[in-house]
Amino acid sequence: MGFDEMDVSTIWMNGEYRDWEDATVHVLTHGLHYGTGVFEGVRAYDTDRGPAIFRWEEHLERLYNSTKPYDMEIPYTREELTEATLEVIRRNDLDGGYIRPIAFYGYDSLGVSPKDNPTDVAIAAWPWGTYLGEDALENGVDVMVSSWRKHASSQIPTNAKTTGLYVNSMLAGEEARRNGYVEAIVLNKEGNVAEGPGENIFMVRDGKLYTPGLSQSILDGITRDTVITLARERGYEVDDSATISRGELNTADELFFTGSAAEVTPIRKVDNVVIGEGTRGPVTEELQSAFFDLVERRTDDHEEWFTYVDEQ
Ligand code: PMP
């Protein structure tokens, strides 16, 4: 669904609340030409206590950390960005949804060096359903191993959530979709499994979980961390610095993606090879329900991960 079909009204931009259609930039914006922006994707969930933002502090921390390689300064404090986010959710009357903070080099000159360009900052929020399709959470998705490789972290910092990085994600995802798959798995430069275009990946084998380590050119996903925590709390052993070869994907008992947008999505087939029984596996199902019980607050666990919009 496009933004024009949504009932949304307000975006916070550079210190002010603007009407949705007025949150615009000049066509000579540095970030538009060179991909020099950093951003976050965050979800708020509809709970008994109103909308609750999931792991807001960690997302904010990652946003500020993402600016560091680019010597970019966000001219607002964490408190100001938090207040703006809460107010954007309220003004758009959202029960839950997706939150998109972004900071990018703005308009001044167009040398590759951003020297005197300001850092523009915006926060938008809108309703957003299941990222990989309606039945993806239950039945899983069919994916292909992309012919595109991830950037090595010696080429571009893959642990910073940079707008320009997503050209690679788009190429991989669209290649998969052109070939009839829902999503891609992207290998790193060494040819080992890195992640999805916008998701981390987990493998289950003999009751143990494996996920590529941070040195494998992945984003340090917050949902990845959540699922590792939930799994360990339930007694699972998790190798969170695994090296997973392409062939191991095919012989896995279960595979699933994690991400703020994708949540916990089972993978049914890789390159048309059926994974496990070809349905959502039991470990995936257990962790997926634990995840949704957590974020929709059917449990009191991990209160520290939630920011209740109506109570701030
Ligand atoms: N990897 C990439 C490349 C992503 O874009 C995302 C989505 N932010 C993730 C992993 C998952 O990260 P998170 O769980 O923090 O959303």
Question: Beta fraction of the residues?
Answer: 25-35%
Quickly count the domains: 2
Rg, rounded, reads: 19 Å
Low-confidence stretches: none
Shape: globular
Largest sheet: 9 strands, mixed
SS summary, helix count: 8
Number of strands: 17
Helix content: 25-40%
Query: Average pLDDT across residues?
Result: 97
Bound small molecules, deduplicated: 4'-deoxy-4'-aminopyridoxal-5'-phosphate
Distance between the termini: 30 Å
What structural class do helix, strand and pairing data support?
alpha+beta
What fold name goes in the CATH topology slot of the largest domain? D-amino Acid Aminotransferase, Chain A, domain 2
- The CATH architecture term of the largest domain is Alpha-Beta Barrel
**What is the assigned CATH homologous superfamily of the largest domain?**
D-amino Acid Aminotransferase, subunit A, domain 2
| Level-1 CATH class name of the largest domain | Alpha Beta
**How would you spell out the order of helices and strands?**
EEHEEEHHEEHEHEEEEHEHEEEHE
Descriptive labels:
312 residues; alpha+beta; D-amino Acid Aminotransferase, Chain A, domain 1; D-amino Acid Aminotransferase, Chain A, domain 2; 2 domains; 8-stranded antiparallel β-sheet; 8 helices; binds 4'-deoxy-4'-aminopyridoxal-5'-phosphate
Overview of this protein structure:
It catalyses: L-valine + 2-oxoglutarate = 3-methyl-2-oxobutanoate + L-glutamate; L-isoleucine + 2-oxoglutarate = (S)-3-methyl-2-oxopentanoate + L-glutamate; L-leucine + 2-oxoglutarate = 4-methyl-2-oxopentanoate + L-glutamate. This is Branched-chain-amino-acid aminotransferase. InterPro entries: Aminotrans_IV, Aminotransferase-like, B_amino_transI, BCAT-like_C, BCAT-like_N, BCAT_family, Class-IV_PLP-Dep_Aminotrnsfr. By secondary structure, the protein is of the alpha+beta class. It has two domains: 3-126, D-amino Acid Aminotransferase, Chain A, domain 1; 136-295, D-amino Acid Aminotransferase, Chain A, domain 2 (Alpha-Beta Barrel). It contains eight helices and 17 strands. Strands 8, 9, 10, 11, 12, 13, 14, 15 and 16 form a nine-stranded mixed beta sheet that branches. Strands 1, 2, 3, 4, 5, 6, 7 and 17 form an eight-stranded antiparallel beta sheet that branches. The structure holds 4'-deoxy-4'-aminopyridoxal-5'-phosphate. 4'-deoxy-4'-aminopyridoxal-5'-phosphate is lined by residues 41, 195, 198-200, 219, 221-224, 258-260.
